[in-house]
Amino acid sequence: MGLRGYLLKRAFNTFILILFVITLNFAIFQLIPGTQGVIANLLQNPRLTDKSIIGRYENQFGLCASYDPATQHCVLATASQRFGKYFVNMLTFNFGVSYQSGHPILDDMIGTGRLYNTLLLLGVSTLFSLLIGIFIGVFVASRRGTAFDTGWVTTSLVTYSLPTFWMGLIFILVFAQDLHWFPPGGVTPFPTGAPLPPFLQQIPTRIAHLFLPALVLTLYFYGGHLLLTRATMLESLSEDYITTARAKGLSNTKVLFKHALKNASLPIVTNAALSFGGLLGGAIITETVFNWDGLGHWIFSAISYKDFPVMQAMFYIIALCVIVANFISDIFLGVIDPRIKYE
Amino acid sequence: MTLQKRVPFRLIRLKNFFLILVKNRLAFAGLILLLLFVFAAAAAPLLTSNYPTEKAGGKLAPPFWVSYIYGNARYSQNAQFGSLTTYTNTSSLGVSVQSTSLGPNDVNVTVRSVAGGTVIVGKTLDYSYSAPPSEMFGTLVVTPSSLSLGSSQPQVAVFFDRIGVREWGPLWNDTLKPGLTSQTTIRSTDPGLAARLGYQSGTDLGQIVFSAKGAYRYFVMINLPPGQFQASFLIKQFSMSLYGNTYGLMGTDFTGADIFSQFVYGTQLSLMVGLIATIIGIGVGLIIGLLAGFLGKMVDEVLMRFTDMMLVIPSLPLLIVLASVLGSSLWNIILILGFLGWMGFARLVRSQVLSLRERPFIEAAKASGAGTSYILARHIFPNIVGLTYVNLALSVPAAIVGEAALSFLGLGDQTAITWGKMLESARESFTGLAWWWIIPPGLGIAMLSLSFILIGYSLDELFNPRLRRRR
Amino acid sequence: MPVLSVEGLTTNYRTLRGWVKAAENVNFDVEKGQAVGVVGESGCGKTTVALSILKLLPRGGKIRRGKIIFDGTDIVPLSDKEMRAIRWKGISIVFQGAMNALNPVFKVGDQIIEAIKTHEPDLPKSDARARAEGLLEMVGVEPSRINNYPHEFSGGMRQRALIAMALASNPKLLIADEPGTALDVIVQAQVLQLMRGLKEKLGLSMMMISHDLSIVAEVCEKVVIMYAGHVVEYGEIGEIFKEPLHPYTQGLMGAFPSIKGNKQKLVSIPGQPPDLLNPPPGCPFYPRCPYAMDVCKTKFPESKKMGSAEHYVSCYLY
Known about the structure:
The complex is a heterotrimer of chains A (343), B (471) and C (318).
Chain A: H1 3-30, H2 35-44, H3 51-61, E1 64-67, E2 74-76, H4 79-91, H5 105-110, H6 114-142, H7 147-161, H8 164-178, H9 199-237, H10 240-247, H11 252-289, H12 295-305, H13 308-336
Antiparallel strand pairs in A: 1-2
Chain B: H1 3-23, H2 25-42, H3 44-47, H4 66-70, E1 79-80, E2 84-88, E3 95-101, E4 107-113, E5 117-127, E6 135-145, E7 155-162, E8 166-175, E9 182-187, H5 191-196, H6 205-209, E10 214-224, E11 229-243, H7 259-295, H8 297-312, H9 315-326, H10 330-339, H11 343-357, H12 360-367, H13 372-408, H14 419-428, H15 435-463
Antiparallel strand pairs in B: 1-11, 2-5, 3-4, 4-11, 5-10, 6-9, 6-11, 7-8, 7-10
Helix pairs in contact in B: 1-2, 1-15, 2-7, 2-15, 7-8, 7-10, 7-11, 7-13, 7-15, 8-11, 9-10, 11-13, 12-13, 13-14, 13-15, 14-15
Chain C: E1 4-15, E2 18-30, E3 35-39, H1 46-54, E4 61-70, E5 73-74, H2 80-86, E6 91-94, H3 108-119, H4 125-138, H5 155-166, E7 173-177, H6 185-202, E8 205-210, H7 213-219, E9 222-227, E10 230-236, H8 237-242, H9 247-254, E11 304-305, E12 311-313
Parallel strand pairs in C: 3-8, 3-9, 6-7, 7-8
Antiparallel strand pairs in C: 1-2, 1-4, 4-5, 9-10, 10-12, 11-12
Helix pairs in contact in C: 3-4, 3-5, 4-5, 5-6
C-alpha cells in the first residue's frame, strides 16, 4: 500500500468518526426532556419574539416536518426526519441560534473574536509546551540518570498532576492579586465599543493578559510531552544507528536532534494530536479561571445559562478539531516515517 | 495445578507485592499518603468539630498559625464566655436570690426582694488576644414567671464589662411581662448596635470592646421594681461567642464555615467518586476488552472501532455536555465519569488477551481439552489481574480531577462540598482569592492523585515483566 | 610503525553492583595494509575493544588503563571534539547489517552523504552524491538505489551499504564488527569476499571482529584470541592454525569442522565463561581448562613469545 492508499484509508476513518460524533451529539441532545418543552421554552424567551428567529430554531431542531396549509400549524417531524435535518445542519455548520444572545451561533463564535482569542491562547501554549517539552525531553534523555534528569522528570510529573484550575487560581493569587505583575483576567483592558489604541501600543498589555493563562496551559502540557519525548528518546538512543551516527563523527547535537529525534518523533506527533482534545478541555477551564473571552469561557457561560445549542455546537466543533488534528498527524506520520506506508 | 502448589505462589506474589511497595521509596510514600487520606476520610467526624457548612469562625478567617508567622499582635481566635454565675449588686439590700443551673447557658433564678434592687447573671472571659474578634454573636431568652407585683414590671438589659475598667451597654433591653418570653440575638455586625451605644453607625462593637487583653464580663441585669417583689426568671441560651479573625487549621470560608472540615469531608467524596467511577470504568473496560479479545472477528472489529471513536472524542467537553443534559447529582457524575473511562483499559485488555491467546501454554491447555470458560478463568484472567490493579490505581486520578473540574465549572452536585466545589466557591465569592481557601482543595486533589500514581507505577513494575528492574 | 597499537587496554563498565571487567590488559598492533582478527565467544570483550578504540563506549563504560596509539598519537586522553575528527576519517566501523545500524527514517544515500559531508564540509553536495554512488557501486549495490530507505534493502544489501558508508571518508583503519553475521551463508560468503577484495584493492588496514575463527582466517594476517576480557593468544594466523597453543584456542579450533581435513570428532568446550563482574582471580579459563594447575588460580599468566614468528600466548603450560 502506498502513501496514497494509506491516506485514503485515514480519510475514510476520519469521515466515519465525524458521522459518529454527529450521531452521538444528536443522541445526547435528544435526552433533553421533551423537545416540545424546548420549543415552548423558546417561545417564552423574551429575546426571541422575532418570528425569523423562531424559524431558525425550528430549523435548528428540525421540529417541524412541514406546516399544515390550512392552519399553519407545525406538523412534527419523526426522529429520523429530525436526524436527517440535523445531520445536514451540522455538516453545513448551521448551528442555529444561541439562547443567551439570540444571535446565530456561528456569528457569536467568530464575529465576537472568541474563536480568535482561543486560537491565540491555544496556539501560544501549544507551541511553547511542545518546544519546551521536546527540547528538555531530548536533553534529559541524553543525560539519563543524572540529577538533571531526575529533577526534570519529577518537576514535570508534579506540574502534570496539578489540576489546571488550581494552578490558574494560585497564579492569580500570587502574580495578580499579591504581586500585581499581571492582570487577574480578561483578554484586553479596553472597554468594548471604545476606539482601540494603535495595534503596537496594544501589544504589551495584550501579552500581559495572555501571559498567565498561556503559562498555565503550557505548564500543564509540557510535562506530558517531556516525559514522552524522554521515553521515546531513550529507546531511540539505545538503537544501533545512534552508535553508527556517533561513529561517523557527528556532533552530539546532530546525533540527538537529527538521528534520534526523528525516530522518536512518531509517538510524539501522535500524542500531540491526541492531546489536542485535552488541550481544548484545558482551555475551557483556563479561560474560565482567567475570564479569557474565548470559546471555553463561552461554554462555561452556556453551562450556567443552559444554552444547549451553544454547547451542542461547541462540542461538535471541538470534536471536529480533534478529529482533524488526528488526521493531520496521520498525514505527518506518513511523511516522517517511510515505513508506515507499508503497514 | 494442585492447591498446595498454588497457595505458596500466591503468597510469594503477595509478599513480593509488599516488598516492592516497601522497598520502592516512591511506592512507599504513595502508600503512606493514601493511608493518610483514607484515615482522614474514615475519621472525618472525629477529626472535625464542625460540619462543612456550619458557622465555625469569623468570615474568611485565616488559619490560627498565621499568628506564628506574622506575630500575635494582629490576630485573635475564637473565644467563649465561661460558666454562669448569679449574684446581686452590693447596693441591693434585702434581695435574696436562688438560682438553679439548667445547663451551661441556662439558669432559673428565683428572686425575692423588699425594696427593689438588681439581679445579675453573668459570664466571664479572660480575653488573651491583642486583636479584637472579627465578629461576635450572642443570644438570650428570658421568660419571667410568677411575678407577684403585676403593675411594676422588671427591666432586663445586657452589658459588656471590662472588669474594673468600663462598661458598655445596654446592648439590648426590654421590659419583662409575666409569661411573655423576651429574646434577642446580638450580632456585632448589626450596624444599629454601635450607634445605640453612641459609636459611629456601622462600627463593629467587638472592635471597640475587645480592643485589649483583659478580663471581660458579659451579663444580664434584671432591675427589680421597688416594693415587695417575688418572681422567677428562666434564662436560656445565654451565650456570647467571639469569632476570632483566625480559625482552626485551615481557616474559614466567606460564611465562616470551617475549611478543614470541608477538606476532610471532601476527602470522603473524592475517594468515593474516584474509586467508584474507576471501578465502573475498569469493569466495563474489562468486559469489552475480554469480549473483543476472546471472541475476535466481527465482535472485535465492532467493539474496537467503537472504542477508537470514543477515545478520539475529547473527554471534558463530553463530560460537560452529559452532565448538563443528564443533571449533576453526585451519582450521575460518578456514572458519567465511569462510563467515559473504560476505553484505554479495554484496548489494553484486548491486546493482552490477543497476545496471551498465542502463547504456548494456552495452546497446551486447548490441546489437553480445556474449554473456553476454563481457559478464560484459569489462564487468561489471572494474567490480567495485575493489569487491572495497575489501571485501577492509575485511573483514579483522572476521575478525581474530572469531578473537580466539573464542580469547578458549576456542574457539580450543588449539595456536596467536594474539593472542586470548594474551589468554585472560593473563586465565586467575589472577595478576592483567599490562599487558605484555595490551597487545601487543590493540594488535596494533587496529593491524592499523586498517591495513586505512585502506587500504580510501582504495581506496574511488579506486574509488567518488561519493566521489572534488573538487579 | 603500526597504524594502531593497543597497549594494556583495560575497559570496565560501571554497574550498580561494581565494575564489569569487560577488557583486561589487551595488547595488539594493526600494521598498515594488514588485517587483524579479534576472535572469541560472545561477551568476551571483542566489541568493547572496538568501541574503546572509537571511544564510543555505552553509558558506564570507561577506559581505566592503557594506551590506544592511532597514527602516532594516544587517543585515550583526547576530548570528544578531537575524537570526532578521528572517527570515520581516521577509524571507521562496519556494524552488523542485520542490526539496526542504518537509520530507518533516512535514505541510505543521505546517510552516506552525511558521513562524507561531516568530514569534508566544503565538498559540494553533488560531488558527495557522486562519491556515494561510486561507493555503492564499489560494494556491489546499484547506484540507483541511493534514494531508497533501509527497509527497502535486503539484509545483504544493507551490509554492503554499511561497508560503503564506512569507506566514505577513506579511513586509515576499518573496524568490521561481525560483518555478515546473521545473514545466510551464501550472502555471508559474498560479504567476506567483498571485504577481502576491498582490503586488497584499497590497501585497507583492518580490524575484524568475529566469533568464528574460520571467517577471520579468510581475511586476516594476524589474530587475537580473547577469552573473558583477556587476550589469551595473539599472533600470525598461519602460526596459530598450525600450532594452537592455548587450551581455549585448541578448543575453538576443535569446535568447527574442517571439510578438507580428516574426519574428527567435534569437540566442544564444557562449561560457561565466567561472570565478568566477579571473575576468578587467576586465568579466567581455568574452571574449563583440561590442563588447569594450581598456579592458574592465582594470577593471570604473562604473555610469552613462542617460536620465531610473531606468536604470543598467555598460559602457564609454556
